[in-house]
């Protein structure tokens, strides 16, 4: 079965969380934005069923929202935990990732996505200071504990194998190191660092990261590097 992913063609953004799952499983998919352009993504949105990308569809249905898409994909792609209880735990943690990503995004868009960063630098610097001192350490410490306290004693967040959640945390860690390199050097995250390394070393992920399918981080996406914000640590 072929999946069709609708997301903007020039940024990793939220679409990258879905791409990583598809790539990790070796799934057959078409990245519509990159093959047909942003207009094809806009056309899909204008049909009215979905508010915003990423949107993933197959021949039978279409689904939007990262956490919802990943829950839908996890079993057919063999990226789900072993039982229903652990699946619910994975969903809970994935929604926490959603909250985390939203707060990361809001560091450079504190007054909303329609207000340009260049017009609110002072406000963004104040928000960055609070985020880097309080919220970033809190989120990272939570996921560190989650890894340490996995009842399976595995190297993964939930269950005894890699899930879509682990792939998402890999992307978050990569993105944070791009956006806030100074702040991240001060964070104590040995378990998350090892998790990110394990994900990067998976055969299909390693191949994907080395390919032109992987879009580099840039200052149009969620994870943006503005030195003046990273200096607020």
Automatic annotation (TrEMBL):
Residues 83-229 form the GST C-terminal domain. GO terms for molecular function: glutathione transferase activity. CDD domains: GST_C_Sigma_like (cd03192). Transmembrane segments: none annotated. It comes from the Bacteria. GO terms for biological process: glutathione metabolic process. PROSITE patterns: GST_CTER (PS50405). Keywords: Transferase. Signal peptide: none annotated. InterPro entries: Glutathione-S-Trfase_C-like (IPR010987), Glutathione-S-Trfase_C_sf (IPR036282), GST_C (IPR004046), GST_superfamily (IPR050213), Thioredoxin-like_sf (IPR036249). This is Glutathione S-transferase. It comes from Salinisphaera japonica YTM-1.
